[in-house]
Amino acid sequence: MVTTPKxxxxxxxxxxxxRGEPNDVRTLYLLESEQNKDRLRWQDRTQVTIPAGSxxxxxxxxxxxxxxxxxxxxxxxxxxxxxxxEGEATLSFFRSKQDGQRIAISHEHVTDGHHEFELKLNNxxxxxxxxxxxxxxxxxxxxxxxxxxxxxxxxQRLPDGTQYPAQPKKVAVGIPTFNRPADAVAALTALGSDPxxxxxxxxxxxxxxxxxxxxxxxxxxEAVAHLGERFREFRQGNLGGSGGYSRxxxxxxxxxxxxxxxxxDDDIAIEPDSIYRAVQAARYAESPFIVGGQMLNLQERSxxxxxxxxxxxxxxxxxxxxxxxxxxxxxxxxxxxxxxxxSRLDPKxxxxxxxxxxxxxxxxxxxxxxxxxxxxxxxxxxxxxxIKWDDxxxxxxAAQHGFPTVTWPxxxxxxxxxxxxxxxIDWQAYFxxxxxxxxxxxxxxxxxxxxxxxxxxxxxxHAMCMEYSTMAIQIEAMGDFxxxxxxxxxxxxxxxxxxAKIRGEYADAVIIESxxxxxxxxxxxxxxxxxxxxxxxxxxxxxxxxxxxxxLVSKEDPAHHEAPQLNLTPEEARWFTLxxxxxxxxxxxxxxxxxxxxxxxxxxGSLIRQTLELLEQIGDDFDELREDYRAALPELxxxxxxxxxxxxQ
Length: 649
Hints:
alpha+beta, Jelly Rolls, Spore Coat Polysaccharide Biosynthesis Protein SpsA, Chain A, 29 strands, about 25% strand, Nucleotide-diphossugar_trans, glycosyltransferase activity
């Protein structure tokens, strides 16, 4: 442990919760000992007072230092904790192993003054965190604590072996928005809420693609006035997420000299220091990489949605990266909750051990994602995919050029989890499938059989669930994929209206205000509505499958189209339930209404036949389509091609 002052600049500040945060959210920042007689106090986010005899731990999501990631990806061999102390306390330093086991490093007695402690990063090959606990001997106030670098960033090594100079601490923040004026203004306001972070924001770019403008929203003038000449808004048609983010990248490269470009969604809650942390991770990288921010659940704010993802190469579908963790609630399972030898014998027991393991990913969602300028200049613009898979494709393309993606712990925003949306069955299903096929054509090697099998399995589930509008627009998606890459820019702005028109022809796409607007459900005796889990779940469902098939081949009862048999929540709307009835209402994921689904055997059969024909054609033509899409990629991702789109707006 080195105590000679050496800190060069902060990498991540130690933060306190914002005022008014509930207890579960506070656990993301600090943990108070249950034995404390007096509570900790703080008036701002960088100063905390610990009463005499009380203890606090910073082994938390936002304040533990992700040492394994810094060891793997950065130029640093050590990190310095710098802090100011008023009072008398003991600082206890710890590290964890990849399985969460805690290792004590040292205990340091501190009194009034500035203190710095250097900790090595040589014990974190597979995972592990660094943190400190505080035990106040006398009432102690800790101010401006931060994990700091011991030196300035050095030049980076590019994939071709040449050096890239160290970059200044500046970033262009881009937030595309579409008819979320209040959310957009809240995001702009948050950017200016922390002077420490505000100081590194070089420019804020906001493509406005809707007809409900942030400029008309209360608070907009104040937020923009604070940003001043740094704020630039662009009115354009609805070009989707890829069009909005591509505009940000285009403007950042053409009209700014910002060394980093940060994408953020508009419908998020921001932890501003995450912006700073992402920039510092990029500046101190051994070689440039894309820095992905993690997603915390906006509706369950102590819950981390995922620690990392990859594309499964068999069926070319999103999935968890090795060792990834989903839906982890830090309020229930803090980082220290690693269980013991006895509890780990029971596979039903859950703990936080996996949170200490480093996770290597392939891509990161664009709810928060930072791109070094050199990456964007090297590999080009996003694909014109409107929405879905554009973020995945960009990281896969970057990796081919030697620029990996890293999902960085402790840099995060709050966003509604995708599990709380209907995007697998609503209009977005068209883009899910079309773009999955396009990206597969670009990056999948070998036979597409598993991809085709996966799509057909999904089609059968949609048929069982009476999701005929989904099947119809997925047929449209396959047709557009087969048409080749030449039409992608042409249909960028027209696909959504076309898909909306198709969906409007199907009852399951019509949202009714409430099930109360329909006759009371007539019932479906014997039909299961609860899922069966466990290792034998699939076996237990076999009798349900047999009964479902028998029902599906029978003629539907028209009487059930007048009144639903069941009213189902989204969680209850499973194939083994819906395949056994002729009708049901299903509540939307957001709880804003219901869809009245009605079984139509003839329609289902027609849609399945059309799907099979298109899947057969995809299998036959995939090699040729692969060549076409790969040959078109440079043109589809060129700045000049996108300039034509923007100039036409």
